[in-house]
Design a protein that fits this description.
Layout lengths: L2 H13 L3 E3 L6 E3 L1 H8 L2 E11 L12 E6 L9 E7 L13 E5 L9 E6 L2 E9 L5 E4 L14 E11 L3
Parallel strand pairs: 3-5
Antiparallel strand pairs: 1-2, 3-4, 5-6, 6-10, 7-8, 7-10, 8-9
């Protein structure tokens, strides 16, 4: 009902450098950085359930939900998926119970990368390491857990490239 609030909002946006006054009395224009954000293309990335950050656990992949992201973060959306973390084995790497990790399935794991690993048909999120004998193993980032050496096969299903947390 009041023009005062509109004027207050416009001045606030101008202070934050989100808009700029135009040459005309009522003209405004978006600044390039704001326009770029508003016009960026968004993509949907599937949330495929949870991933243990503890000992490996057998889990089924299924689309539980979708997250919308800027396409610049995920240039080829089909190569990405998101998993919810359960457990505390990666707390020293800053990955906590309830966090979501963004995983790039086409990235090749290198020593020291945090990966989604499939160990003897069970998956987990850990740091990918190689010992002096050339054996691959998964290293937790919590002293309470021991390294995981596969009895059979160790496959990496993707490299963790992002983390999301809500408070």
């Amino acid at each position: 009902k009041s023009d005062g609030f509109v004027i207050y909002l416009m001045k606030s946006l101008e202070k934050k450098k989100a808009i700029q006054k135009d040459d005309t009395p009522r003209g405004i224009k978006l600044l390039p950085r704001v326009r770029e954000r508003l016009e960026s293309e968004m993509v949907q990335i599937p949330v495929l359930g949870y991933i243990p950050a503890g000992g490996p656990v057998l889990s089924e992949e299924f689309v539980e939900d979708w997250m919308t992201m800027d396409s610049k973060m995920t240039p080829k959306p089909k190569d990405f998926f998101i998993l919810k973390v359960r457990g505390d084995s990666m707390i020293n790497a800053g990955i906590f119970n309830g966090d979501y990790v963004l995983v790039h399935s086409k990235s090749e794991a290198r020593k020291g990368d945090i990966v989604v690993g499939l160990v003897d048909n069970e998956n987990t999120v850990k740091r990918y390491m190689v010992d002096k004998k050339g054996r691959s193993f998964l290293q937790p980032e919590n002293e309470k857990y021991k390294p995981i050496y596969p009895e059979g096969e160790l496959l990496t299903q993707g490299k963790v490239v992002g983390l999301f947390r809500w408070y």
